[in-house]
């Protein structure tokens, strides 16, 4: 390993009375990309409050030559460069050795299983995660043997896995107890119940010829809850028919599953 070894930590020392935080190790060639991510908004506040321990490790520090080489041309020819096995293997072994709790190793890859909210909720309950963010044309196939699972954030191509690692880390961190202002906030968001989230409105009551639905001003919490559920169903049916079909299958024994017929209320038709 070259001088420098481990990348910068973004966590303050634990208080004596603190509960052990979720630890996330991110292995990347571009640790600086995570500076703002780890110091702002919900993630930054969670780090400051010792709710999560985010460590960044530079894979290049584990290159086996003095040039810091971590990629090479693919056997059989072809365009682009391929990340080499040994630096990634050594980086994983190094971060595993730095904490008594073994981490679940996740390779961010377009060939991985699509990231779903259920997966996020499962990972949020882990003690430690190790995220490998690749770059260049791809991984040496043998790197896949280092991972417990592969995860993809969508069917599109990016320059590297750093943004995918941020997306996964953000989704997991915000589910940690105390990360959000209200714990119930996560239970009403899109996908948490298998539906897209209902429409939101704030002041003013009327603007640009559009008004807040009267039910939201009624003070009747039961009616408001029923309206929000109905709107969530309508929005899911219209915008994500795949999710709607899954929801119907999961709730097939309930009498109030749908709307599948009828016109959508005007406020849902006109508003994005």
SSE blueprint:
Layout: E1 22-28, H1 41-48, E2 52-58, E3 71-72, E4 82-83, H2 85-97, E5 104-114, H3 117-124, E6 128-133, E7 138-139, E8 149-152, H4 162-173, E9 206-207, E10 210-211, H5 221-239, H6 241-250, H7 266-270
Parallel strand pairs: 1-2, 1-6, 4-7, 5-6, 5-8
Antiparallel strand pairs: 3-4, 9-10
Structure described in brief:
It is found in: Cytoplasm. The chain has helices spanning 41-48, 85-97, 117-124, 162-173, 221-239, 241-250, 266-270; strands spanning 22-28, 52-58, 71-72, 82-83, 104-114, 128-133, 138-139, 149-152, 206-207, 210-211. It has 272 residues and is of the alpha/beta class.
Defining traits:
272 residues; alpha/beta; Alpha/beta knot; Trp Operon Repressor, Chain A; 2 domains; five-stranded parallel sheet; 7 helices; 10 strands; 28% helix; elongated; disordered N terminus; disordered C terminus
The named CATH superfamily of the largest domain: SPOUT methyltransferase, trefoil knot domain
CATH architecture call of the largest domain: 3-Layer(aba) Sandwich
Distance between the first and last residues' Cα: 52 Å
The CATH class name of the largest domain reads: Alpha Beta
Q: What structural category arises from helix and sheet content? A: alpha/beta
**Cα-atom radius of gyration:** 23 Å
Helix-strand sequence:
EHEEEHEHEEEHEEHHH
Low-confidence stretches: 1-18, 263-272
Major pleated sheet: 5 strands, parallel
Helix content: 25-40%
Which word captures the global form? Answer: elongated
The total beta strand count reads 10
Tally of separate domains: 2
Proportion of residues in β-strands = 15-25%
Strand order of the largest sheet: 2-1-6-5-8
The pLDDT mean sits at 87
Function: Specifically methylates guanosine-37 in various tRNAs.
GO biological process, one term: tRNA N1-guanine methylation
Keywords: Cytoplasm, Methyltransferase, S-adenosyl-L-methionine, Transferase, tRNA processing
Organism: marine sediment metagenome
